[in-house]
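PROTEIN FOLDING TASK:
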Amino acid sequence: MDTQNPSVRPHAQSRITGKTHPRRPAHAKAHPVGVIHDNTRHTTRFTVIGNHLAQHPQLSALAIGLAVHIQSLPTGARVDIKTLAHRFPESPARIAAALRELETHGYLRRTRERTESGRIVTRTVSFNQPGRHAGATDDTPKPPVGPPARRAATAPQRKPARRALPAVPQPAYASPTLLRTATEVLAGLRRTDPRLLLSTTDAEHLAPGVAAWLERDLTPTAVRDALTSDLPPDPLRRPAALLAHRLTAQLPPPPPWRPPVEPPPVRLTMHNCDGCDRGIRAPGPGARCRDCREGPTPATTTT
């Protein structure tokens, strides 16, 4: 009975009972590891967030979360540090650091403005796409698709559009004096390296970034040395783009908070009055008493 029949066709052996495994679901074979999305289409109360923000390689998780929260708020909502610290469990210091990250990468801009009543307020602008203008949209009508028309041989060829410069850090308070100093620093870079000759448009774009450095207790000489040191030996195709990258990537941390220094108390010592030679307490010699300072009271005449 144990002799095999050579006329029987070979067949697969049955699985051993002890090695039987439960059946796996179909999606587990396609995606053995990683996240599985179970998405539902939103029709109301939603905000469109770009992957350049949600998957930013340099922003922290807190900065990305604050950017998403700010972009979901209506126009006019308060987004100052105190309001955000009351809304979220993070401390005001961490909220402030995350907002500075968003400013550095162009997702946020905060400027101080003076109202008609004389009060200084902070104006916050949120950008969902850094480097894009507010009026630029992708919904502009496109020409109908057709066979390409032949260009005349004498028609002038248009130059390709120049790419926008990278975003630069923004100062907390862009005063005219600070921006003027920043522009002078940029204009003087060509004296150190002739390749750093900037146009007026490039200097206006880079001036807020230099002002953000000057706000952090850096001298104009220190900023100029940081921008001109270790430059590549090759010719610079676009020096303004290189300076914008350095202003963003090498932005120094803000200076530590220092309490205001109170003036020393005034010490009064005994001196003689220069007018009546009476002894008085004064900061130094040469002082007069109150009677000598006020002078004699004019006499009143009666008729």
User: Anything to note?
Assistant: Residues 200-214 form the longest helix (15 residues).
